[in-house]
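can u do me a favor
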């Protein structure tokens, strides 16, 4: 039976989970009409067949004797895809609203840990004219880039390409002789360097930790275990127009949009705008091109103080750009935001018993998560139904009430906001503020 030890960060995500804090990623894909406007009766079987053909989705987590406290991915011999693929009929005339409400409720539910940790839901309108697919993958199974690589297997274009590639003869890899002592010395030098970086990250972490989080009242509320989802769509050409006028990157513009939307939302709620913060954790992928999909989560992160109190959109964007430039100059392996790198230095037993305790410390480091998820640029479809929208969803760490995930597809930026349903019941208003803030940036002199 195929087994593969969980990488340290994967193991940390596995043990960070609790009933009230499920650690799964999500994506909500909304599709257009099918061939000749037909219904969706063929989609459950199609989804099931394509999911069953993805090897990673047939693996579950099992404990191992060695290393002590460790776990491994194990291929399930009697895998039954029907336990993972479901369909839900939605009532009402407003399909968009019904989809986001249903997705929020489904994201509340933890994945069953004795099974391969993923689920797919086909969400169908009452009149069977519209459909969407919600995908849930445990964070131990996938970081953002790997989730895209795994989940993309359901789309026509990816599934067809994989089927074609499976029939091609595979070249026999050339064997490289071991480097002997030189290889051993290189490994030792690498480990010493990693330990040195870990010590530096740990020191930065202590300095950056706060006993009094400076976020919004909603972001520091006690968790309820409920989830609410809101979505927004931003025109990508507007993002690039602002970027060309102001400098920096498209991601800088989007982070400034999030900061402005939070400030607008706070003001409308009557909350005090903090002079510094709230602080966002901005994940950064350390996955190298061509790195195998099964090589574990490869993440670091930057910390960013969102300038919500700055009333001038231009100055707000400049502050974000300068802060991100400083982060990039230091690199993703330095600073308190690189806390994920510490997982590589801890033994499995420490993750098993220490992760639940460490999970509560997230609030001392950051107030919300803001992440960008890269998507394929090519047009995608499912059973001939074109993909219209794709909203990523990030998990909420213990003590967190809001996560903002962004992805670009079809010339538009899709934002998925996951919130604690009781702490942030008006997350829909925050989502709407994203578009208002981008319009404000676009209206600045020189942005036209």
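np, heres the sequence
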């Amino acid at each position: 039976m195929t087994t593969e030890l969980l990488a340290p960060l994967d193991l940390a995500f596995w043990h960070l989970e609790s009933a009230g804090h499920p650690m799964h990623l999500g994506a909500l894909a909304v599709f257009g009409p099918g061939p000749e406007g037909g219904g969706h009766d063929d989609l459950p079987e199609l989804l099931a067949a394509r999911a069953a053909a993805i090897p990673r989705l047939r693996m579950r987590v099992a404990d191992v004797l060695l290393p002590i406290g460790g776990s491994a991915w194990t291929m399930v011999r009697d895998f039954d895809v029907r336990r993972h693929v479901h369909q839900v009929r939605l009532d009402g005339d407003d399909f968009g609203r019904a989809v986001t409400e249903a997705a929020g409720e489904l994201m509340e539910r933890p994945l069953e840990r004795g099974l391969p940790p993923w689920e797919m839901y086909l969400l169908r309108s009452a009149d069977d004219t519209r459909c969407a697919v919600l995908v849930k993958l445990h964070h131990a199974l996938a970081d953002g880039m790997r989730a895209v690589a795994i989940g993309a297997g359901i789309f026509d274009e990816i599934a067809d390409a994989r089927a074609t590639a499976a029939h091609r003869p595979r070249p026999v890899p050339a064997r490289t002789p071991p480097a002997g002592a030189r290889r051993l010395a290189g490994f030792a030098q690498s480990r010493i360097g990693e330990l040195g970086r870990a010590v530096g990250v740990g020191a930065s972490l202590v300095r950056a930790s706060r006993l009094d989080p400076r976020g919004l009242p909603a972001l520091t509320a006690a968790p309820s275990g409920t989830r609410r989802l809101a979505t927004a769509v931003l025109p990508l050409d507007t993002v690039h127009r602002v970027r060309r006028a102001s400098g920096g990157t498209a991601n800088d513009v989007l982070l400034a949009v999030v900061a402005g939307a939070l400030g607008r939302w706070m003001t409308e709620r009557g909350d005090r705008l903090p002079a510094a913060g709230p602080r966002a954790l901005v994940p950064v992928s350390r996955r190298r091109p061509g790195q195998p999909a099964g090589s574990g989560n490869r993440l670091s992160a930057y910390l960013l103080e969102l300038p919500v109190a700055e009333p001038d959109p231009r100055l707000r964007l400049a502050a974000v750009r300068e802060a991100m430039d400083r982060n990039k100059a230091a690199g993703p392996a330095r600073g308190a935001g690189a806390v994920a790198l510490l997982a590589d230095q801890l033994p499995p037993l420490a993750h098993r018993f220490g992760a639940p305790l460490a999970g509560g410390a997230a609030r001392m480091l950051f107030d919300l998560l803001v992440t960008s998820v890269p998507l394929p640029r090519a047009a995608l479809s499912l059973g001939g139904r074109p993909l219209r929208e794709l909203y990523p969803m990030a998990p909420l760490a213990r003590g967190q009430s809001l996560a903002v995930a962004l992805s670009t597809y079809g010339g538009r930026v899709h934002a998925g906001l996951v919130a604690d349903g009781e702490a942030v019941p008006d997350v829909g208003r925050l989502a709407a503020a994203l578009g208002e803030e981008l319009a404000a940036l676009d209206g600045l002199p020189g942005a036209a």
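The CA atoms of residues 224 and 422 lie 6 Å apart. hope that helps!!
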